[in-house]
Amino acid sequence: MSGWRMWSELTCLSQRRARACGITLHRMISTRQFLQNARKHVTSELKGDVMVIRLNSPGSKVNVLSKELSAELVEVMNEALISPQVSSAVLISNKPGCFIAGADVHWLDSAKNVEELKEISREGQAVMKQLENSTKPVIAAISGSCLGGGLEVALGCHYRIATKYSKTVLGVPEVMLGLLPGAGGTQRLPKLVGVPAALDMCLTGKNIRADKAKKMGLVDSLVDPLGPGIKPAEERTLQYLEEVAVQTAQ
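The structure assignment produced for this chain is given below.
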């Protein structure tokens, strides 16, 4: 059984047991708080009825779609889905200049045979399907590099907002290494941008800047970057992007 399916079943089992035993909402919230404190790659915060999910891989300048980040993202999404306090979610990076830079190549290299590679692909697809099939809207707030597995995560969301920041680019550069998007991107891209544009992206691996991404239909709306203030321009832009995304989610 895959880790994603096991977690989903355990979540459902926990809810049934909680109801049967009369466990209070306070205790369930305390359990979620414990899990959140134990996470290293993903944190969450409730703003009104919107859960803001922040990606921040420790010890790295960029986020990569690693096994650990994927597992923690699934956990947080499960919490959002079962919580009556949450009506929608925003997925955003805590790293200025990077949403998700791609899949973790070390995760791929760890596969010892074809079957293990297939399992990695299936697990990646399960993450995207969970986002796509969520009964609560999920918004991807993109600033900086959104490439490879990062773009696939964004494609799985219901709405995409991007900054018109010079470092904001979207694409599937893994095709330059002879790899195709392995988590459903080849199916979701044509639905958004049409077959000709999707083929161009998947055959060339070119990066798409935010303005063009909006014209193509790859993103739904754009946010202008802010200049420097008390905080650096990148941090202010990221904070503003989050505010816009939360307002959109509401």
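Interim note for the steering committee: The mean pLDDT is 82. The radius of gyration is 18 Å.
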